[in-house]
Amino acid sequence: MNYVCSDCGKEFDGLDSDFIRCLYCDSKVLFKKTPPILKTFSTD
Ligand SMILES: [Zn+2]
């Protein structure tokens, strides 16, 4: 799972799911980075 720091915007892999902190600025406000979901539409 990739995380994005809300403070410095760096991305990193979450190493410990119980306590995630930014590796660069120690911010605890992180967002999970989810891959964009591609929706498929049927045009039948
Ligand atoms: Zn940070």
Strand proportion, as a percent range, falls in 25-35%
Oligomeric state of the chains in view: single chain
**Main beta sheet: strand number and arrangement?**
3 strands, antiparallel
Question: Could you say which overall geometry the principal axes of the C-alpha atoms support?
Answer: elongated
Q: Strand tally, please? A: 3
Name the structural class.
mainly beta
Radius of gyration, in angstroms, nearest whole number = 15 Å
Question: Average pLDDT, to the nearest integer?
Answer: 83
So how many helices?
Answer: 0
**Fraction of residues in helix:** under 10%
- Poorly predicted segments: none
How many structural domains in the coordinates?
Answer: 1
* Element-level helix/strand string: EEE
* N-to-C CA distance: 36 Å
Can you list the ligands bound to this structure? zinc ion
Which strand order do you get reading across the main beta sheet? 2-1-3
Quick structural gist:
With about 45 residues, this protein is an all-beta fold. It contains no helices and 3 strands.
Explain what this protein looks like in three dimensions.
- The protein is mainly beta and 44 residues long.
- It contains no helices and three strands.
- Strands 2-1-3 form a three-stranded antiparallel sheet, with no helix packed on it.
- The radius of gyration is 15 Å and the shape is elongated.
- It starts with a strand and ends in an 11-residue tail after the last strand.
- Residues 5, 7-8, 10, 22, 24-25, 27 line the site of zinc ion.
Write the layout of secondary structure elements.
Layout: E1 2-5, E2 11-13, E3 30-33
Bound molecules: zinc ion (ZN).
